[in-house]
Amino acid sequence: MSKILTFDTHIDIPWPEKTAEGLPAWKITDPDDLSSLWQSETKRRFTLPKAQEGGLDAVCLVAYSPQGPLTKEGHEAAWKRVNAMLKTIQEIPLSSSSYKVKLCLSADDVNQAFNEKYFSITPVIENGYVIGENIENIQILSEAYGVRYITLTHNGHNLLADSAIPKGNDKNIMHGGLSELGKEAIKSMNQAGIVVDISHASRDSMMQAVSHSDVPVVASHSSIKALCDHPRNLDDKQLQALAEAGGVVQITAMSPFLKRGGGATLAEFMAHIRYAVDLIGIDHVGLSSDFDGGGGIKGWSDASQTAQVTKALEIAGFDNSEIRALWGGNMLRLLKQAEIYSQTAKK
């Protein structure tokens, strides 16, 4: 088999969950020690040495904000946090002396880096909470950092959409899916070339986003509800709607999403991938780890075991072209479609 580009599309960067001052996470703007990214002996599931050992070629690195209060203070703090995180992601290639690393802001960039034997990192955002009420922030995120997808929500409703998992004080439903601001945000993301990510969104939010977006959307880290009844997973009708609109579900190595009670292995991971492929077709399925954001299963517990995933796909009966599609080809197609739409919209 010829070398396949392995593109893990959802990995969290090092960031403290608390400080000595007791700041809530959504206010923390100072990174952890990034030196952990260059170390093999660390609890982090993704590091450059582990990626090299496992044959991982490219990643989307996530600037994540937990859900904070829906106030001016909360939104301003989250905006500062996400800017700090994205600046940190930009600096990673500059801080690497032992590894060839490139910041890649387009599908062509990722493919070129792969051909030139560079490791590529692409910046993305988890939780549209960070834009607050300012839709223009979306264009800023695109122009300043080259952000390639934004997850509409995290755990807890925000001003854009209802979440699949409300926070403690949330009502079950806040907007009935997307808010008017959320619909505006999706249009702005389309125009900016940013893919809409519907992982974490409620069922209504997800279905409305699929129909409202002019560009195919992604579920960057979700799995199959028919195999594991978790609120973060997608049911068959959601999967079919996603595929009919040209989108992709990235089956994720998050144990509770793959097997009730956890303890998932590569066998369950392959079962979810196979189910999705059989239901909606190979062109609409991919995979991601969610490393350092809760992801990791037996057989793919960190980036050093990436080659075992490729082997498992072979054993599961996927051929070379199918594995290439699953391992990033489909996601790269979505990124390219978003880029083309944005370029056309600006003319």
Automatic annotation (TrEMBL):
Taxonomic source organism: Aristophania vespae
Name this protein carries in UniProt: Membrane dipeptidase
InterPro entries: Metal_Hydrolase, Pept_M19
Pfam families listed in its UniProt record: Peptidase_M19
Highest taxon listed in the record's lineage: Bacteria
A GO molecular function held by the record: metallodipeptidase activity
Any one GO BP annotation for this protein: proteolysis
